[in-house]
Amino acid sequence: MNQNKTFILAGASSAIAKQTAIFLKEKGYQIIGVSTKPKDFDYDEFYEVPSYDFGNFPSIEKPIDGLVYFPGTINLKPFARLTAAEFNNDLAINSLGAVAFVQAYLSNLKKSENASIVFISTVAVSTGMPFHSSIAMAKGAIEGLTKALSAELAPNIRVNCVAPSLVNSPLGSKFISSPEKLEAMQKRNPLRKIGEPTDIANAIVFLLLEQSAWVTGQVLAVDGGMNNIKNG
Asked: By C-alpha distance, which of 38, 47, 36, 37 is closest to 8?
């Protein structure tokens, strides 16, 4: 195993990012965290940025073996109540930030012998859900970016995407904030449970490392079957 691998996680304060970092650090890899929030995890290097916008990512000189872009939103409203500002904000955080992140470190990835990029989408792109129009549009752009970049950057850089359903994390906490809400969400899922950060982190680590060396351009559903199994 190459102990010298280095990975950058944007949105490093999220629960799934921290769990991904734990798994990678257990393998002896170096992990760099980037976040709009103060450091709250033992990253090998950490940078606080004002936003995930072009020009805000720190300059790093060494080769980078993988990038994961975690920042996301869950802004659920009836379509008629969503404002232009809300659509723009969701697109900026979920999609344009991912573009800025990859552009900031593309030259670093090209220095690696086996580089990988992982984006995060949502089951709401493949499965139509009411009140999800803004987030589904923003994450749909991420899935399109995954396909386009995987073609453009092959064969030296792989690009894949993980598409979860609801996960037990601070971002989704308002949807499971009571026993009744939790039970309702569990009943909606074919496996009768919601995801844990470890479920998503395991998939991300798989896509980052050599075990997935023949996988690129894919959207991996990690959602308890919600994207393609009829529930009930």
From this structure: 47
Residue in the block written with tokens 């079957």: 225
Give the mean model confidence (pLDDT) for residues 53-68: 98
- Answer yes or no: is 175 within a domain: no
What's the CATH code of the domain at 44?
3.40.50.720
Q: Are 90 and 135 in contact (CB under 8 A)?
A: yes
What's the structural domain count of the chain? 1
pTM above 0.90, yes or no: yes
pLDDT digits (tens, 9 = 90+) for 181-204: 667 667 777 788 888 999 999 999
26 assigned to some structural domain: yes
Half-sphere exposure of 203 (CA within 13 A, CB side): 21
Among candidate residues 23, 21, 209, 28, the one with its CA nearest the CA of residue 114? 209
**Dist CA 187 CA 219 (whole Å):** 25
Q: How far is CA 10 from the centre of its chain?
A: 9
CB 36 within 8 A of CB 51: yes
- Please state, as a whole number, how many other Cβ atoms lie within 10 Å of the Cβ of residue 214: 7
Could you list the residue range(s) of the whole structural domain that residue 26 is in? 6-168+196-222
Helix pair 97-109, 133-153: axis angle to 10 deg:
20
